[in-house]
Design brief:
The complex is a heterodimer of chains A (100) and B (427).
Chain A (H helix, E strand, L loop, with lengths): L5 H11 L3 H6 L5 H9 L17 H12 L8 H5 L4 H12 L3
Helix pairs in contact in A: 1-6, 4-6
Chain B lengths: L3 H15 L15 E5 L5 H11 L4 E5 L4 E3 L5 H5 L8 E3 L1 H5 L3 E3 L3 E5 L4 E4 L4 E3 L2 E4 L3 E3 L25 H12 L5 E6 L9 H16 L4 E6 L7 H12 L3 E4 L7 E5 L4 E4 L4 E3 L2 E4 L3 E3 L1 H5 L24 E3 L13 H20 L8 E10 L2 E12 L2 E4 L5 E2 L6 H23 L1
Parallel strand pairs in B: 1-2, 1-9, 2-5, 9-19, 11-12, 11-17, 12-13
Antiparallel strand pairs in B: 3-4, 6-7, 7-8, 10-18, 14-15, 15-16, 20-21, 21-22, 21-23
Helix pairs in contact in B: 2-9, 6-7
The chains are: A mainly alpha (100), B alpha/beta (427).
């Protein structure tokens, strides 16, 4: 179930690029959608793949950076995290932290 | 089933929950904006669901001939016996529950100027934006002798339809004597699901190893290299010994002619391979409606703006999924799902008169080499001045080497991917 908070509404608008000024320079429009193919509806997790929704933003960010820098072992996340900028990682973390 | 009342009620709740602004630009004289989606697969179902979830003010109609959708992904696991047809068959009921009008009919013709689509059943649907995701057509006759009748004897199992083709291939494997030869004809690039033929070879090998261990696989390829090649070949050696012979194009692997009655696969230089079961995966193009509507170029695929997936040939039409040319991204279910969302967001942005979202595409393709042996390829893509480019130093394939825990986890995550992405389409 994808319950979306008002906070997510704001982040969602940024991520979806509806807020045009932010979209011009802003990070990772729709990037969060790319995670949902494995991390379950709304990022709620799916079987062996852990949830992202509702986790602490700093924790998500630290994990993504850790995967990217090979400081954390992963199955496929190291290869994935290397594709994103710092700003995109921060935006993804904020998005999922605001998702319940 | 959404009546006008429930749709309005749902819209009110979702819109306030999202804190959405009223979107007057979306309102046409006669009511809300109409998004029409043709094709109910990885591109189309994802587009319809995403639109209802994130743009609830838009009316969404989905046209799909089949009442239940059988996925290509995981179809190969029917051949090994790891899955049954029910595991890969999906209903449109929950999309209906989300307010998608699902019409089970075939889209016959698009009138891009009038923004209408005529259905085989006679109805004409109007749209403000069209998301076209009809998939592929098999190029009958591209391999001499391989037509629709031949496919009943030498299945392609590459367009799932009602699941009949993959089940036919499974029955032929069951009927084959131990010690028989299973032949594959594998097409040149580009084609749907680049690692698919090699996962299929793996799953057939898994079946044969268990039930008919004296049998062989002869894989005749129109290419000299293939997706995740090193990983597949490592896995084949580790799990199936010498059962699989792969013949590249440079060693006369390209099948140019078939004789369905004799089950013969004939290659470029005239070698006739008589096999007991033949899986012929022919060359492909975009689905017929894309060709008939003048949306494809001479390559047979629709050319699109890589940032929005808007057709280069007609206004107000976005072509997503395997029918479009998203190179260098693969024709995968994940890319179809991912780019469908970008297309919907871009189409709705255009209706609002705002710029489309910045594109950033993501792909993961898992393949099963064995039941507990999975491998993957990952890609993250941006749009540059010359089109789509993979982000340097990211993505790529699983590490090689003797890594049983990595393989076990990837097989497990593949199952999670399947469950997750089909929820993101049909849930």
């Amino acid at each position: 179930m994808e319950r979306i908070t008002a906070a997510l509404g704001m982040v969602g608008l940024l991520v979806l690029g509806v807020a045009a000024p932010a979209a011009a320079t802003g990070p990772a429009p729709l990037a969060a959608q790319g995670c949902l193919g494995c991390h379950g509806p709304g990022g709620a997790g799916m079987a062996s793949v852990p949830p992202l929704a509702g986790r602490d933003a700093q924790q998500i960010e630290a994990m993504l950076r850790g995967f990217r820098d090979d400081a954390l072992p992963g199955t496929i996340m190291n290869r994935i995290a290397r594709g994103y900028t710092d700003a995109e990682i921060a935006a993804l973390a904020a998005y999922f932290a605001a998702t319940r | 089933m959404a009546t006008a009342l429930t749709r309005r009620a749902a819209l009110g709740t979702a819109a306030s929950a999202l804190g959405l602004l009223a979107a007057p630009a979306l309102s046409r004289a006669q009511g809300t904006a109409r998004l029409l989606v043709i094709g109910g697969g990885f591109g189309g179902a994802s587009a319809a669901r995403f639109a209802r979830l994130h743009h609830p003010e838009v009316e969404v109609t989905l046209v799909e001939p089949l009442t239940r959708f059988v996925t290509c992904p995981y179809g190969n696991l029917l051949l090994s016996g790891f899955r049954g047809i029910g595991d890969i068959t999906h209903s449109y009921d929950r999309l209906r529950g989300r307010g998608v009008r699902v019409v089970h009919d075939r889209a016959e013709a698009i009138d891009a100027a009038a923004r209408t689509v005529r259905l085989a059943g006679g109805e004409t649907l109007r749209y403000d934006k069209l998301i076209l995701s009809p998939g592929i057509a098999l190029r009958w006759g591209a391999i001499e002798g391989y037509d629709e009748a031949a496919a009943e004897r030498m299945p392609h199992a590459w367009v799932p339809g009602d699941g009949g083709q993959i089940q036919l291939l499974r029955r032929q494997l069951e009927a084959m004597p131990d010690g028989g030869v299973v032949g594959f004809a594998i097409p040149p690039n580009p084609f749907r699901c680049p690692p698919g033929p090699y996962e299929r070879i793996s799953m057939v090998a898994a079946y044969l190893k268990r039930h008919k261990p004296r049998s062989k696989i002869l894989a005749l390829d129109a290419k000299d290299a293939f997706s995740k090649q090193g990983l597949f070949q490592d896995g084949w050696r580790a799990l199936y010994g010498g059962m699989i012979e792969w013949v590249p194009a440079s060693q006369d692997g390209r099948v140019v002619r078939v004789d369905p009655a004799e089950r013969v696969l004939e290659t470029e230089f005239g070698t006739r391979h008589r096999v007991d079961v033949a899986n012929v995966i022919p060359p492909q193009s975009a689905a017929r409606i894309v060709l008939d509507s003048g949306l494809a170029d001479t390559s047979g695929w629709a050319q699109v703006d890589p940032a929005t997936f808007a057709s280069r040939a007609a206004a107000d039409i976005h072509v997503v999924g395997d029918a479009g040319n998203g190179a260098p991204m693969p024709k995968s279910g994940y890319i179809a799902n991912n780019t469908a969302k970008q297309a919907v967001a871009s189409a709705i942005a255009a209706l609002r008169g705002v710029p489309p979202p910045e594109p950033l595409y993501f792909n993961t393709c898992y393949s099963h080499v064995g039941e507990e042996y999975g491998i993957s390829i990952v890609g993250i893509y941006r749009v540059g001045p010359n089109g789509i480019v993979e982000v340097p130093n990211s993505g790529g394939v699983s590490p090689r080497g003797d890594l049983p825990e990595q393989r076990r986890l990837e097989a497990l995550h593949a199952d999670s991917w399947y469950a997750s992405i089909t929820e993101d389409m049909f849930g």
